[in-house]
Amino acid sequence: MTATLTTENADHPPTRPIRILLLSNAIEHLAYRFTQIALPLVVLREFDSAAMAGLVGGLAGLPVITSPWWARRLRQCLSDGRGLALVSLWQAGAVLVVPIALALGALHPVMLAVAGLAVGVSDALASPGRTAVLGDLGDRVGGGAAIRVITWDDALRRGAMVVGPALAGLGVQLGWTHALLWVEGLALVVSALLVRRVVVPIAPVAPVAPVAPVTPVATGRSTVRADALSAAMAPAPAPGILASVRDHPDVLRGWVMRGTSCLLWFAFALGLALEGERTGRAGALYATALTAYGLGSLVMTLAIARRPPSAQPLRLATVAWVGQGLAFAAMAVWTTPVTVGVCAAAAGAVTVVGIRAMMQVLLTRTHGPARRAALAGQSILVDVTVSVGMLAGGFVIDHAGPRPTLALTGLVTAAVALVAGLTAGEAAAPSDLRSPPAGHLGRGRLRQLLTRG
């Protein structure tokens, strides 16, 4: 499968495909939250086992972690809407295994395992694939549109994190738990029908200077010129994840900062839950922190979505993750619900700034197959570090206590960000981020595109 290309972008920037892809993503973001709430409840009722409830999620992570070995070539097929639609249909089939088995009275742990693995395969491909296509479309718009469009997609995802669980919880209260399992599968089919219409326009090609004539040298039926032309026309091999960023140390520095933050996330997610339990505020402290973090991140995402790209994104990311670390450390000192809520909201806000800054670095340093590989690497980094942190974090908190753990991990996050970010000499932002190319969509037109309808 190859990208569908068109030459219409010179006069008509791809605003409509961007809107279609954002709508498709929003549908999937929201529908996922219904399954996230309903599936554990259904499995617990059917098997009365927390281990069974975690089976789907646990197995879904395996294909993501192992994707560097099996997904390299498949990632390069997701360069237009048709490839993304096929992945969405695959995931729809995997998600619908559970409600269909329930309806037939045939739900079995083996089915849960198969469904979990199948969902993991689609997750490993869909997330970086959709982000890469959005970035490609934004590149065709010009004027730094790629990072702004992806920021809007992140805003939709964070909005779904706030709205989706509330709607799903209402459905559970009304006794529609089983019905909720059908929502994501059907929504994925609708998303596939939408996204299949997305076409990535071909980038404008600058005029090529005439090539000096080359004297053909006969070698059987081939010539030197024919060999050179065939080599130029041959598709580039799919790069590995490390190969895609090896020449971009600023991307690697950003991964160090974000990876450290994800690895130590357990101190916030587990530590505050345990601290609330020990101080007689079971659930209240944790719920306050998560709600404030989510709201802070959503508000900041909306605030920066229309902002132009940063001239020094690596420095901005450094400041952001230093701020996150200090906010977490402050929660270990002041543990009232009000102060925890304020610090958590601040942590959520600055984290969004850091993620956007590093996404800008990745998008401006990589293109085409290398971009898809780098985005896949970033997804794997986040999934693996969060999983490892959660697995080991419980033992750390049991031995050190929640407040000392939260304080120490916050300071470590800030220190790593300082070392990784401020010791690097950052190159100037590429010119295509500072001013839109002639004939391309400007910032004002893009704002109209993303804010109307």
Description of the structure:
The protein has 453 residues and is mainly α. The chain folds into two domains: 8-195, Growth Hormone, Chain: A; 241-430 and 444-451, Growth Hormone, Chain: A. The protein has 21 helices and no strands. The protein starts with 14 loop residues before the first helix and ends with a helix.
Q: Give the strand content.
A: under 5%
List SSEs in N-to-C order. HHHHHHHHHHHHHHHHHHHHH
CATH topology of the largest domain: Growth Hormone, Chain: A
**DSSP, total strands:** 0
By secondary-structure content and strand pairing, the structural class works out as mainly alpha
Radius of gyration: 24 Å
Portion in helices: over 70%
What characterizes the major β-sheet?
none
Tally of contiguous helical segments: 21
Q: What overall geometry do the principal axes of the alpha carbons give?
A: globular
Average pLDDT works out at: 77
Unreliable stretches (pLDDT < 50, length at least 5) are: 1-11, 205-209, 214-234, 427-453
* Spatial separation of the terminal alpha carbons: 33 Å
Can you identify the CATH superfamily of the largest domain? MFS general substrate transporter like domains
CATH architecture field of the largest domain: Up-down Bundle
CATH class membership of the largest domain: Mainly Alpha
